[in-house]
Write a structure and sequence with these properties.
Distance between the termini: 8 Å
Protein name: MOSC domain-containing protein
Pfam families: MOSC (PF03473)
CATH class: Mainly Beta
Number of domains: 1
Helix content: 10-25%
Shape: globular
Organism: Methylobacterium crusticola
Number of helices: 4
Length: about 160
């Protein structure tokens, strides 16, 4: 099946360890099979580092953040502005259908990623940010966990395109 869409990378964020404020980067080096240089999951210091999972790089759609700000879906009492630096995912995208990329390969600039599984929202993020209802607001759209097949440097503005299966 050929996918015909294209999007782009808006933001890159890393944190050196769990619960530490995320840092926005102008570029990042992704290391195949490991993660993002300087990020908690490459360093083994993330909240979920001890749990076996593909978490070399995580992505989220800016469209989800925009929907949350508009109060969609209708979670009682939730209409919140969640900045890209707050959601704890590494890459914020626009125009990329993340739910459709589970098990698929795609390119971000010169890097090749493979979608692992959809990221599950967690109460940890809701508590960390102090936003009641955020867990429910992110159900089924909390991002995508990926492996890095081909490493390299990425920058905001890089195109994101599907690769043939």
């Amino acid at each position: 099946m050929t996918m015909t869409w294209s999007g782009h990378l808006l933001h890159i964020h890393i944190a050196p360890s769990a619960s530490v404020e995320m840092e926005e980067l102008a570029q990042a080096r992704l290391i195949a099979g490991r993660g993002i240089e300087g990020d908690r999951y490459l360093l083994g210091t993330g909240t979920y580092s001890a749990k076996p999972d593909i978490r070399e790089v995580t992505l989220i759609e800016v469209e989800v953040l925009e929907a949350l700000e508009q109060g969609e879906p209708k979670v009682p009492g939730l209409a919140t502005r969640l900045e890209p630096i707050d959601h704890r995912r590494n890459l914020t995208t626009r125009g990329v259908p993340l739910n459709h990329l589970v098990g698929r390969r795609f390119r971000v600039g010169e890097v090749v990623l493979k979608g692992g599984r959809m990221n599950f929202p967690c109460k940890y993020l809701e508590e960390l940010l102090g936003v009641p209802g955020l867990y429910e607001g992110l159900l089924n759209r909390s991002g995508l966990n990926c492996s890095i097949e081909v490493g390299g440097v990425i920058r905001p503005g890089d195109p994101i395109v599907p690769l043939a299966d």
